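Q: What does the predicted 3D structure of ABC transporter, putative look like?
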Amino acid sequence: ANFPARGEVIFENVVMRYRPNLPTVLAKCTFSVRAGERIGVVGRTGSGKSSLVVALYRLRELEEGRILLDGSDISTLGLDMIRGSRMSIIPQDPVLFSGTIRSNVDPHGLSADADVQSALEAVTLWRAVALQGGLNAVVEDRGRNYSVGQRQLVCIARALLRRPVVLVMDEATANVDHETDAIIQTAVRTLFKNATVIEIAHRLHTVMDTDRVLVMQFGSVVEFASPAEL
Ligand code: ATP
Ligand code: MG
């Protein structure tokens, strides 16, 4: 349950495709993220940014290469560890469970109401949720009564309660207004200070204050340097 402890993430020559007859979407992809580092990932649409998340979350088998979390090959770790409480992934278009806001933010019912509310306040969702019945606000099938940005904020609130060592954020592209985008950016920046943060971004300004920016192209890393050097 205490794994990973430090949060170092290494991709070594990772090759992945979605189906055997399709082209590779990760092509000898290699990079290392130091424990506690905050990196931005940029690249054109289709360059493989979200596929990094797919590989890290073990949603597809790798064809070649390996991914190391604190030195351990993730293919040898249980899925419950990969998808456990110490690594949180905020997908580009998150799906919520039908139920309540509370059950989405705290699926295992481990936190006190006050803490769930604080997490929602921290991501500035509480005002909107309070109008819908507070913690018992209804979440419809897949979260369709929430916007993409709000669904991401719900996932960030969930991650907040878990205090992950690794946070991977795949910024939403569609229909996220500037205000929500700014809220998400600030939340990720301030609330996960000690975590390793991998932040996939669609706007360059989002990554200007990261430690390093990784540029993807055709499934490979073409640059990985401090924002000032790019
Ligand atoms: P965006 O900026 O639009 O989010 P991205 O960099 O995240 O793009 P990926 O989603 O990683 O790009 O896609 C990389 C390639 O993989 C693209 O050619 C895409 O069409 C393909 N792809 C993505 N998901 C699937 C899937 N589930 N099945 C088949 N091909 C896929
Ligand atoms: Mg993507």
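A (community wiki): The structure tokens above were generated from the sequence. Helices lie at 49-56, 79-82, 101-105, 113-122, 126-130, 148-162, 178-191. The chain has seven helices and twelve strands.
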